[in-house]
């Protein structure tokens, strides 16, 4: 399986996927950590993939999305954005709405 096929499979078979540096339990960069905090805060389940474990994955995801930076968030197979976009969407309530629109449960208490 090529790296493109692996990425495509992960993006399409998981509702929410975060390509990040480190893991959700131990983010290894501030930007990845911010996105993890936002997702955890709104109570969305997601799969975190650590790009630091594989140079092939780290480079492959940038090619796949045509986006130069990590982290990258995918929801229902669609690329949503990196840290700045996710933070702005969260602050405006748009991220929560996106999850709602896609049928992904969020923590209603937020």
β-strand amount: 15-25%
Tell me how many strands there are: 4
CATH architecture heading: 3-Layer(aba) Sandwich
Name of the CATH first level: Alpha Beta
General shape: globular
Nearest-angstrom radius of gyration?
13 Å
The residue fraction in helices comes out at 40-55%
Major sheet: order of its strands? 2-1-3-4
Q: The CATH topology is what?
A: Glutaredoxin
Number of helices: 5
Parts with pLDDT < 50 across at least 5 consecutive residues: none
Mean pLDDT: 96
Largest sheet properties:
4 strands, mixed
Number of domains: 1
* Assembly status: single chain
Distance between the termini: 40 Å
Under CATH, the homologous superfamily reads Glutaredoxin
**Element order: H for helix, E for strand:** HEHEHEEHH
| Helix/strand structural class | alpha+beta
Task: Characterise the protein shown here.
- The chain has helices spanning 3-13, 30-42, 55-65, 83-92, 94-101; strands at 16-20, 47-50, 72-75, 78-81.
- The protein contains five helices and four strands; from the N terminus they run αβαβαββαα.
- The N and C termini lie far apart (40 Å).
- Strands 2-1-3-4 form a four-stranded mixed β-sheet, with helices on both faces.
- With 110 residues, it is of the alpha+beta class.
- α2 (30-42) links the parallel β1 and β2.
- α1 packs across α3 (55-65) and α2 packs parallel to α4.
- The protein has one domain (3-102): Glutaredoxin.
- The chain is globular and about 40 Å long.
- The mean pLDDT is 96.
- Keywords: 2Fe-2S, Iron, Iron-sulfur, Metal-binding, Redox-active center.
- Belongs to the glutaredoxin family. Monothiol subfamily.
- [2Fe-2S] cluster binds at residue 29.
